[in-house]
C-alpha cells in the first residue's frame, strides 16, 4: 500500500518533468546557462524576438522552437572549440514568456524603410520596441540621418501620426523613444543624410 502511495505521489512530478523535456522554447522565455568548467560564462539570458540567444565566445544561436536539451547540446558543441575537453553545459528554464490574452495576435508586422541595413517588413512579438525593430532591420546604415528618424502610426480611425526621433541620442542612452512599444502596422522611416549633415 505504501508503494502505491509513493507512486501516486511521484506521478505528477514525473509528468511535469516529461513535459519540460518536450517544451519548445519561445521568444520571451528566460534561460539559465551554466558551464561547469568556466563560471564566468554562467548567465541568465532572454530568448530574443528573433528566437536567438547571445552568449560570449559563441555569439548567437537559435533557441526558439527547440527543446532545452537541443539548446544545451548546441551550446556545448559551440563552446567545445574554446576548451581542451568538451565542457559540461546545463540549460534550464527560469521563466516562461508572457502569454498573450485571448484574441491578441501572436505577431505584429512592422515596416522599416529607408537607410537601414536590411529594410522591409519585420514580423515581431507584440510589445516589441522601436530599438528591437531597428536591430532586426540590421541597424542603421552609415548614411542614415539618425537625428530625423520617423515613426508613423495609424490609429483605429485611419488617422496617421508622425513622431520625430533622434536615434543618435537613443543609441547614446540620452534620448527617449527607443523603448517605444510598437503596434501592428507601424512604419519606421530612416531618411538618408544630406551632404553636410
Automatic annotation (TrEMBL):
Alphabetized Pfam families for the sequence: Poly_export (PF02563), SLBB (PF10531)
Start and end residues of each Polysaccharide export protein N-terminal domain: 20-93
Domain Soluble ligand binding: 110-159
Keywords: Signal
Family matches, as InterPro entries: Poly_export, Poly_export_N, Soluble_ligand-bd
MF-aspect GO terms: polysaccharide transmembrane transporter activity
Keyword Signal: yes
Protein name as annotated: Polysaccharide export protein
Amino acid at each position: 500500500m505504501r508503494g502505491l502511495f509513493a507512486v501516486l505521489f511521484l506521478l505528477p512530478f514525473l509528468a511535469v518533468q516529461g513535459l519540460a523535456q518536450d517544451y519548445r522554447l519561445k521568444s520571451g522565455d528566460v534561460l539559465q546557462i551554466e558551464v561547469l568548467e568556466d563560471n564566468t560564462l554562467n548567465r541568465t539570458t532572454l530568448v530574443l524576438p528573433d528566437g536567438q540567444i547571445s552568449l560570449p565566445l559563441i555569439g548567437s544561436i537559435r533557441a526558439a522552437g527547440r527543446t532545452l536539451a537541443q539548446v544545451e547540446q548546441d551550446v556545448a558543441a559551440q563552446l567545445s572549440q574554446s576548451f581542451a575537453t568538451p565542457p559540461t553545459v546545463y540549460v534550464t528554464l527560469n521563466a516562461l514568456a508572457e502569454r498573450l490574452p485571448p484574441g491578441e495576435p501572436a505577431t505584429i508586422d512592422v515596416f522599416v524603410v529607408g537607410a537601414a541595413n536590411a529594410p522591409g517588413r519585420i514580423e515581431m512579438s507584440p510589445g516589441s520596441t522601436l530599438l528591437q525593430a531597428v536591430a532586426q532591420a540590421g541597424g542603421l546604415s552609415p548614411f542614415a540621418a539618425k537625428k530625423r528618424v520617423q515613426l508613423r502610426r495609424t490609429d483605429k480611425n485611419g488617422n496617421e501620426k508622425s513622431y520625430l526621433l533622434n536615434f543618435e541620442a537613443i543609441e547614446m542612452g540620452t534620448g527617449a523613444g527607443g523603448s517605444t512599444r510598437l503596434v501592428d502596422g507601424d512604419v519606421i522611416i530612416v531618411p538618408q543624410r544630406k551632404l553636410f549633415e
